[in-house]
């Protein structure tokens, strides 16, 4: 009985508090719910309709607030186009030349002349077996007999797969003849951090790269002080993949501090053609407010996100490391075409017998997405457009490149240059801060019900303190009535 009596008192107190609240509040529309001494059925119907309207507007305000919160939580940033910056403030891209074949035929012939063959395999069988090493980088059919033969031959000659592929794969000497920066010729190989080519590796095997130092965290990529077709890098080269196998060399344009990955722009250099590669750099940066967000919210990373790692964060390097870990978990070894920096202690180098694992999981390796490898918050990206001309049409030309060198049917010329004197700068900024979120939430509820912060304070005042006072008053009234009945 006491519990029921207490519940009844609470209901009466709550009802009294509600009517006191609607009598005094400035929230739009609530005054229509005030009680009247002699209310009619028409008054009750009107109050019911207003109750439905006010409740519907409250639901609308909550729905709009949830939409604002989701926008704030999932898309807190936006990219704005800032003023253009001079081309001298942006790094000239790295340029990498690769053969579409991981093993060059003429190098394979030279390799056959130097190896020892005490196992009495035929030269043709050995060459076919050695070509199966391309299974690390491209799709092949599985042939365990050939893999065993390769391992036996390499063991007999005290060679590893790494050493063998460096002898059979492409190098700078295979591709380059003359190099120019603008109209000035320079040695293609020199002890210069900027104007030089070095041998590199990629997902297609051994390559040749310009302005490429991904392993050196202290390296500052050089910038170009000119633009246009007469500026930038000019290469006169020779495609040594003879015969019907010649489908043109592959070229990738990328950031100088990025390892070459499949995501980079791919350009084909056709024999006896001049290729014009126009580069459009875009500078990316982030505001201080964006960097204060978590990496998933800002959708980019900086090196300090990895406090335990001393390496400079690059998205391409992250992707390469992610794929390397996947390969190790699947095949248990370190393949030749991955940088040695990602090889951990205790991981063995892949042998020819591991090729079957690569071929079986080829599609799996290519399809895996590394979601943790977000773009860099500060970066320079490079998009390109490409044009070709047939060198057969240049029997007469004012260019010294054509007149100074004898070009064969396997020669090629490629020009890589910046398109404009200025570079577009994109900056990632906060689209909605905490302050703007609160302002928008206030605007939503003010639109629906005319609620402000003081209205919220007023609500809590009535339904905490005033509710307590009314409950005490109802208790006192019951106590007085019971005392009078007793007397």
Automatic annotation (TrEMBL):
It is found in: Membrane. GO terms for cellular component: plasma membrane. It is a multi-pass membrane protein. GO terms for molecular function: ligand-gated sodium channel activity. Keywords: Ion channel, Ion transport, Membrane, Sodium, Sodium channel, Sodium transport, Transmembrane, Transmembrane helix, Transport. Its main location: membrane. The keyword Membrane applies. InterPro entries: ENaC (IPR001873). The chain crosses the membrane at residues 48-70, 437-463. It comes from the Eukaryota. Belongs to the amiloride-sensitive sodium channel (TC 1.A.6) family. This is Sodium channel protein Nach. It comes from Hermetia illucens (Black soldier fly).
